[in-house]
Structures are given as structure tokens and as C-alpha cells.
Amino acid sequence: MNTIHDMGGMDGFGPIDPEENEPVFHHRWEGRVYALMRAVGPWGRGREWPPFRFTLETIPPVEYLSLSYYERWFRMMTTRLLVSGLISETELETGYPDPGAPRPEMLPGSNSGALGAGLLDRDVSARFGPNDQVRARNLHPRGHTRQPRYVRGRAGTVVEDHGVYALQDTDEDGRRPRDRRPQHVYSVRFEARELWGERASAGDSVYVDLWEDYLEPA
């Protein structure tokens, strides 16, 4: 993914002003969006919903930058509902039931064979270990990836092995073709100057959790 949706490590967006005693939600509608996300979740069972982050990354860059955090969530949620046929365009526009649309039904969960996002109890050999010198591969996928753009091609040191997880990357259609190849996830330390050059502090480091497929020996 090479679009504005991967903003990690970028600058030029102005200062970060922490808000003292910041509320959980700044507006009441934000809490409603969060509640709606939880409420519609079970309706995704048995349906081909595009993954959460992939759907966010399909928002055109100009629109993405103009939307607030929970506006993006709302866009993602309504996209899922439209794609799966749970709501119609008319219902989204008016806020009222569409008499011409079929009544939505809750479906049973499907056995897709997906391994999920949690830690897996799998006996998989680890390619790397603590203190190994590695380099993040210079990958340019067209779909979603968990590899931050700013570490591509940069060298680091493996600090910890978090265990085995299913790779969460998608292709450009939102599918996870490599989901069924579980692999180790490592915490890798990158020196700040390796990432951002001499303007970074010589004493700073960044720790990034990376799937094994993202790494190669340095």
C-alpha cells in the first residue's frame, strides 16, 4: 500500500497538541458510531465483508484526509453494509426502510478456514531469533499490509518473538490469500537514524512488530 492511508513516519502535518483530560468521545454522534459498529458486527457472520482496514484504505485519499476518525469508521461500516446487501442506497440516503429491499436476515457463521487474528497454537519453525540482524523487505503490495512504509529497506535487530499468527495482509480485492500460512511475528528495534537520518536523535529507537514474511537477513 503506497497511499496516504499509511501515514506512519510522515511529518509536515503540524504540531501534535495533546488534550488534557480528553473525553472518550468529543461528540455524541461518535459514541453512536462506535455503538453501531458493535451492534452490526454479528450481521457479518456468513457474509463476504471486506476487512476493516482494507475498507478504510479504499476511501479516496482526498476524502480520507478530510474525514475525522469516526467519520472514517462510519464510511467503512456503511460500505460493508451496502456490499453485503444489508442496506440499500435508498436507506442510506433517507434513513428509512426501503420497501423494495429484501428484509435482512441473520446468517449462521461460515467455516471459511480462516485462522483469525489471535495467537495460534501451532508448531512453526522460527527463521529468526533475538539479536538477529534483519532488514525489512522493500514490499509494495496493492492491498492492505501490516508492514509500515517507513521501515521498508531499513535494518534492525530482532528483540522478541511474539509467537505464531496468521498473516493479516489482503490482496487488492480485500481477500487474504496468505491467511492460512501462519508464521512468527517479531518485535524489531530500528534506530531512529536508520529510519530518518541525521536529523533524528542518536539515542532514540522504534520497536515495530513484523511478520516473518516482511523480513530478510541483514
Q: Please write the string of helix (H) and strand (E) elements.
A: HHHHHEEEHEE
The radius of gyration is: 20 Å
For the largest beta-sheet, the strand count, sense and barrel status come to: 5 strands, antiparallel
Q: How many angstroms does the end-to-end distance come to?
A: 23 Å
> Strand pairing plus helix content: what structural class?
alpha+beta
CATH class descriptor name of the largest domain: Mainly Alpha
The residue ranges in which pLDDT falls below 50 over 5 or more consecutive positions are none
Summed up, the helix count is: 6
Describe the overall structure.
- It is a single chain.
- The mean pLDDT is 92.
- The chain is of the alpha+beta class.
- The two termini are 23 Å apart.
- The protein folds into two domains: 1-104, Cyclin A, domain 1 (Orthogonal Bundle), CATH 1.10.472; 133-217, SH3 type barrels (Roll), CATH 2.30.30.
- The chain has six helices and five strands; from the N terminus they run αααααβββαββ.
- Helix 1 runs parallel beside helix 4 (69-83).
- The longest helix has 15 residues, at 69-83.
